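Format is sequence with structure; example below:
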Amino acid sequence: MRSATQFTNQTIMTDPDSLTTLLTAIAVADSATKMVDAVENLAQARLEAAVPNLIAVLGYNNPGAAVAAVEGLIAIGKPAVAPLLELLDGYNYGARAWALRALAGIGDARALELLLDAAKNDFALSVRRAAARGLGTINWDELPVESIAPNQARVIEVLLTVSQDHEWVVRYAAITGLQELAIASTISNPDLTRQILGHFDRLVDRDEDLTVIARIWLAQKEIQTYITALLSQQPELEPQLAIDWQTTLAKLYARKRQEQPYPEGDPHKFRAVAAAILKGDR
């Protein structure tokens, strides 16, 4: 399957005959594989006129075609945002989740209100997951300067709540969103970055899912790596970016020691495996 990056490198086509041909291929596709191929070709063409058709594909019962459509919408970029917001399927939660993935990939600030509401209130875990991830990809420089800090405060409030969702995949996505927000606000709002790192410290002590805990560790590492690289280039930022990494890492290692694998034959090991299998079946 072609990547969104490959789509981005293509020249946008405007020939209406090309659109007709590509849409005909989708209409006559008589297998899931042919449908995926047809949608990939449509996405690769980067026709703005095809945006409604790509959005329609998000509602098909074909994950491969949906992935191709999402990549195509991301490659088209900003011209796809308004149609995505207008044509969002309020009844098909699968299509809604795919649409939010596209909006997250584009990062346009016009999607902010939708992402905030979906992350906090949507009943579908796939939608909450996509929205939480999308809240970390907002292009903040698209907003008026005076509205960036207030909107980032709204985002962190929602993500702090969503990072305690009852579904681990949603919590995982919220950690990803918080990581991106921490990095994006490091210079303009270092207090926000410190707040996120403090929240990670508390989550490590509370969360029982090892996958989520591992994602928290990765987020803290990525933030530390970013700040370290930033300070190497701009050492004058040291006073405002002072973060107690030693304490943070000490907490991480303490929790990590608690998660040492059970020895072979320990009954707790099999109970943990059974619980993981049941969780995967839900």
User: Anything to note?
Assistant: Residues 1-14, 262-270 have pLDDT under 50 and may be disordered. Residues 131-260 form one domain.
